[in-house]
Amino acid sequence: MLNYIWAGLIVFSLVFALIYDIRDLNxxxxxxxxxxxxxxxxxxxxxASTRRLPVHVHINQTEFQRLYGVSHDVxxxxxxxxxxxxxxxxLQFAKDVSLPEPLATIRSMTSKRENDLRGPxxxxxxxxxxxxxxxxxxxxxxxxxxxxxxAITQAALDFAQTAVTIAIGLIGVLALWMGLLRIAETAxxxxxxxxxxxxxxxxxxxxxxxxHPATGxxxxxxxxxxLGLGNAATPLGIRAMESLQELNPQKDTATNSMxxxxxxxxASVQIVPxxxxxxxxxxxxxxxxxxxxxxxxxxxxxxxxxxxxxQRTKRxxxxxxxxxxxxxx
Length: 329
Fold this sequence. Notes:
Blueprint: H1 2-27, E1 36-42, E2 52-59, H2 61-68, E3 77-85, E4 88-93, H3 103-110, E5 118-122, E6 134-139, H4 147-187, H5 189-204, H6 213-226, H7 230-246, H8 256-267, H9 275-281, H10 289-312, H11 314-317, H12 321-324
Antiparallel strand pairs: 1-2, 1-6, 2-3, 3-4, 4-5, 5-6
């Protein structure tokens, strides 16, 4: 079911992007082929033989708003460089400079690597060796089309790369904790943990038989969450779900214990702040300790109460695998 939801979201986003891009094409949002009037101010007199000349680009706000049909204000001066080659002249704005829309979008579409707005520029410099420091010019940009479709495609590729990176990074962690968990099972440590915590977890998970290894795996999973060991909690949670699935007579439907375990993992009570948050904030994370503790504690209470309440409703009780598979009489 989740795959269908993701597929529907992707199709919807593509259709929305296509409609948006068609509207841009009809309205000519980026004024493809129409030059932007600018004025270049040179720090030194203009020299046609110099390859790179630093300039300050002045954009007239009235002309900018008229050309692109916008109403927001723009900065009047931008730093840049005039590059002169045998192929012609090109004006490059400073890298990472803050630009108004739609110039910012044009930059992201035409200069992703350098992140500097650029384009061919045409002007007429004064003849006779006059010292020219101010030149009106027309600045053109590469044509921009299908902005939204391009953005969605790039986002899909970026997230696919991120997913692979995360998956590869988790292989070692999963292998380590699965191995340690297997050693603990063989040594009988999980059975000892089950006997110790049985009175408490018996009320939360009454469907689990007495002294079943699933109880110990659940305890280990929740303990890892409490201690902020997210990488350890993941394989322990997977192993706990596998153990609960062994007790499930209807393999395509989750039992109450499986739903409750998932809800408790989602709440994820944290006594020790997550390692990622510590790495980002350092010692400042201590200021958030009580906030994290209160938030996760109440989220756990709400998760348990909600799961237990829904288990007793007629609609969800009728789909309980452990009840629907009981023999009649």
